[in-house]
Amino acid sequence: MPDLDWLTARPIAHRGLHDAAAGIVENTASAFAAAMAGDYGIECDVQVSADGEAMVHHDDALGRLTEGSAPLANLDAAALKQVAFKTTADRMLTLSELCELVSGRVPLVVEIKSRFDGDLRLTRRVADVLGRYKGPAAAMSFDPEPVATLRETAPALTRGIVAERHYRHHEWDALSAATKRNLAFLLHAPRTRPHFVAWSVKNLPALAPLVARTIFGRPLLTWTVRSAEDRATAARYADQMIFEGFRAP
User: Fold this and answer.
1) Residues 164-195 as b or e (16 or more Cβ within 10 Å = b)
2) Among 14, 18, 102, 229, which one is most buried in terms of CB atoms within 10 A?
3) What whole-number distance in Å separates Cα of residue 97 and Cα of residue 132?
């Protein structure tokens, strides 16, 4: 196991330190700059573009925060970098650009978005970018396949699994009951060998992350901490929180 003290040393700002009221939009350079100014770690999401680039964006389609409505996977990186956001002059970043912006000043935790369809282009691109990055960084995913691929192709890169207990949200409807059990109980761990676990704060305490943390010594992050109650849960059961909506102490 690598030394992961850097991963748990400071609270991690979920999608950067964003604040809609102040015009700071999630997963933008402004949000990441605010996180660095607060000495927080940075969590971000990446989606794949048509030309295989890792784009820093949560949703798999334009529209919630930006102009347009196209799937990101239908547009190349150059086109996506020109897309206007609705409430900020920021533009979408590539993961390489984010790494250049952060330049090792704070830890960077990259969530690889997946449709559970076996497409590993994004995983390979993340491994390539973070493999050349000199700062503290980790990659994680809800999907075990990217994590297993990172273990095989980029074993030196810190990797984690993102998980929860129930998988009841509609975004998980396409997953079978067996797949949900596999995810909820970390049954893939012999194959993925995650260095850390990121678990839903709403589902703590839970058996799987407790075993991973106390028996196998895996650091436990918890997400997304938004309230005083969440903070208390995180402090009791996890090693560090991924937070939003306030300034963590």
Assistant:
1) bbebeeeeeeebeeebbeebbebebbeebbbb
2) 14
3) 13
Closest by CA to 77, choosing from 103, 100, 110, 55, is 55
Under DSSP, the state recorded for 240 is E
pLDDT digits (tens, 9 = 90+) for 39-82: 999 999 999 999 999 999 999 999 999 999 999 999 999 999 99
Query: Against a cut of 0.90, is the pTM above it?
Result: yes
Pick 12-197's CATH classification: 3.30.2270.10, 3.90.25.10, 3.20.20.190, 3.40.190.10: 3.20.20.190
Q: Which residue has the tokens 């196209």?
A: 70
* Angle formed at CA 38 by CA 163 and CA 138, multiple of 5 degrees: 35
Among 186, 189, 188, 190, CA closest to 203? 186
Question: Could you tell me if 243 and 226 are in contact, meaning their C-beta atoms sit under 8 angstroms apart?
Answer: yes
Backbone CA torsion sign across 23, 222, 141, 10: positive
